[in-house]
């Protein structure tokens, strides 16, 4: 019934002028992702926790597969719309940003938050739909964190991010080279995960 209502709402939105088609498409994509997350119980924190605590590394392969598929799509799309990567300045449409210690600290804090709450944001969202009330304070904490990040971002960006190095692999080795390097790294991580994971026996012996 819920899926039927969402499909009907997407149909209604598609008939509106302006951004109706975009809103309809976003609703359909969000619905599909929500169903996939809920049925697959896909949670980034749970995946890495199981790999570290139980040495069950099989779910990590799903993350690596998603990154690999996204990398291929990235190379195809950017190769079509931004074919020239050798210029001195990066294409503005590529949205290549600098990387600094601020982002590393933010990622660490975010990881600590996931460990304390017991799941990632996607995990809390689908669990909330299942009646898991402990997801409510976790999501409230997430909103507070986003507000704090929004209020401090300009200050942090001007002092620690703006002048940080900006690295874009296609600029140095092209789209083909960057894709090959990315897939090679992902393959190496997958082989390591399969060999070290005690719960990956069916995959390792296949």
Structural class estimated from helices and strands:
mainly alpha
List unreliable stretches of 5+ residues. Answer: none
Given the structure, what is the number of helices?
9
Strand content: under 5%
Estimate the helix proportion, in percent. Answer: over 70%
Order of helices and strands: HHHHHHHHH
Which overall shape is indicated by the principal axes computed on the Cα atoms? globular
* Largest β-sheet summary: none
> Which whole number gives the mean pLDDT?
83
Q: What's the alpha carbon Rg, rounded to whole Å?
A: 20 Å
Overall strand count: 0
Distance between the termini: 40 Å
Overview of this structure, please?
It is a single chain. The chain is mainly alpha-helical and 206 residues long. Helices cover 74% and strands 0% of the residues. The protein has nine helices and no strands. The chain has helices at 2-14, 20-40, 44-54, 60-81, 101-117, 121-129, 135-161, 169-196, 201-205. α1 (2-14) packs antiparallel against α2 (20-40) and α5 packs antiparallel against α7. The longest helix is centred in the last third of the chain and has 28 residues, at 169-196. The mean pLDDT is 83.
Summarize the helices and strands and which ones pair or pack.
Layout: H1 2-14, H2 20-40, H3 44-54, H4 60-81, H5 101-117, H6 121-129, H7 135-161, H8 169-196, H9 201-205
In short:
The chain is mainly alpha-helical and about 210 residues long. The chain has nine helices and no strands.
Give short descriptive properties of this protein.
206 residues, mainly alpha, globular
